[in-house]
Amino acid sequence: MGTLIALLSIVLTLVSLQGVTCHGEQPLSRIAIHNVVLAIDIHASITATPSVLGVNGQNKEWVSLEYSVSNPSADDWIGVFSPGNFSASSCSPENPRTFPPFLCTSPIKYQYASYSNPHYKDTGKGSLKLQLINQRSDFSFALFSGGLFSPKLVAVSNIVAFANPNAPVYPRLAQGKTWNEMTVTWTSGYGINEAEPFVEWGPKGGQQGHSLAGTLTFDRSSMCGAPARTVGWRDPGFIHTSFLKELWPNTMYTYKLGHRFLNGTYMWNQMHQFKSSPYPGQNSVQRVVIFGDMGKDEADGSNEYNQFQPGALNTTNQLINDLENIDIVFHIGDICYANGYISQWDQFTSQIEPIASTIPYMLASGNHERDWPGTGSFYGNMDSGGECGVLVQNMFYVPTVNRDKFWYSTDYGMFRFCIADTEHDWRQGTEQYNFIEHCLASVDRQKQPWLIFLAHRVLGYSSDASYADEGSFAEPMGRESLQKLWQKYKVDIAIFGHVHNYERTCPIYQNICTNNEKHFYKGTLNGTIHVAAGGAGASLSEFTLIQTKWSIFRDYDHGFVKLTAFDHSNLLFEYKKSRDGKVYDSFRISRDYRDILACTVDSCPSMTLAS
Description:
There is one protein chain. By secondary structure, this protein is α+β, with helices and mostly antiparallel strands. A hairpin with a 6-residue loop joins strand 8 and strand 9 (152-156). The longest helix is centred in the N-terminal third of the chain and has 15 residues, at 2-16. It starts with a helix and ends in a 14-residue tail after the last helix. Mean pLDDT is 92; it is low at 1-22. Keywords: Glycoprotein, Hydrolase, Secreted, Signal, Zinc. Residues 170-275 form the Purple acid phosphatase N-terminal domain. Belongs to the metallophosphoesterase superfamily. Purple acid phosphatase family.
């Protein structure tokens, strides 16, 4: 009997470690690409115009399609393929006795032929506008019948290409390992044997200098499984990162990406600008936006029949429209939900370029970036689609010691941010636990009073239905190790993603509210306020019907969080909805340094008669 109970306990533990999974599925995964058969119809056609894109340096353009077919059906669809010359020649047989499939590469996007043509089924004729971005190769458009599960290729368009497909594109800023260092990462089609990557930069209106960039790439063998290693694979090009050092605080700088060819000529990207970070403790207004689980969306409506990430563009556009009032962004996991379809990372970096090229875009790692069985991730699921962290670790820079250990700290003026990696073990006794304690313990709260803990999965408190069903109201084992650290070091706010909704708790410790105020906290908090902010774009998740005492505000909608530190004593927290940018929940903290020093439950050494 004892053995049976022990075995049952192990099984339940393994089940719980699967964690909460996301809603929806990657739209490209619905296409049975290996089932494609060649069924060219001489009466069918598809034409794309213009054939040359980006003649004036643009990296995003609209293409018009005109198509016709003799036997139309409601499930006919159009796939965008890149490279444009796709065929069985790029496919490998699974074994020497079988022929390779006709197609073994997924399209980078698709749309139904009847999308903007209500009479398509009757006439067999249609037109469509699709948006393309510069992705280091040409494109073609293929018309399929038979739906997504039994696709038959009936027509292929002419080739469409950007004037310079290898151009440096999609710069993304991130803070370096010190407060006065900014990093610039971008993508191009130029390896170091073709051109030398660098950034030309300097104070706005001042003398400009050059900083060389390091170059990374990876191949199919770096992927851990399908679809990243099979139908989802696409050459990532080259990822370059340059380090701009010894910046003066709160100063405007300009920069542009460059590549110097072996013959002495140059290729340039457009001019961008950014404001350097304030020094730790600097007293200035500092504005931080935080959210998780945004993903990418398509302005042309493609790929979106199942509402995979319906709020992503709304969130992105709200940030772009308010960019002059934002200093730094934290996207805390589940970045673009590529799920092994590599092309989607380029599309995501294009989507956020207006933001990430201007202010630091900092990341945390989520299950859809890292998790894959047998690769060292804490959860043994397949949520990354075989990427196993490779894409997020290469496409973006974060100031970690080891990129696979995606935890780090970063300072922004009066803020200290401790970013955890929930896809690796965080429990007491682990390397990450020691990092978290050091990050929390090492901050000077007189200079940096606002201490913020960030992570993807909810390690604190959440009323999401999935967590409530488990009975833990958070990741199993989430709070057990960390809540004593949050309390001991007086973390102000802990913000998580993963659950696709918004929720705010009272200041709380060990399931008990430590402060009954809801909107204006004056003096000592006595606990940590926990926030779920995973509703930035992905399909929403339901709350439990259970009304917990610690839950102050819930919202089943897309949105994001904004923190504004006015000085060392006053902080404003706001939750804004993505559809209109208006504030729907807020609170203020007003206190002095002595309030941080004050002892609360488990925050000071135990008193004894000897002391």
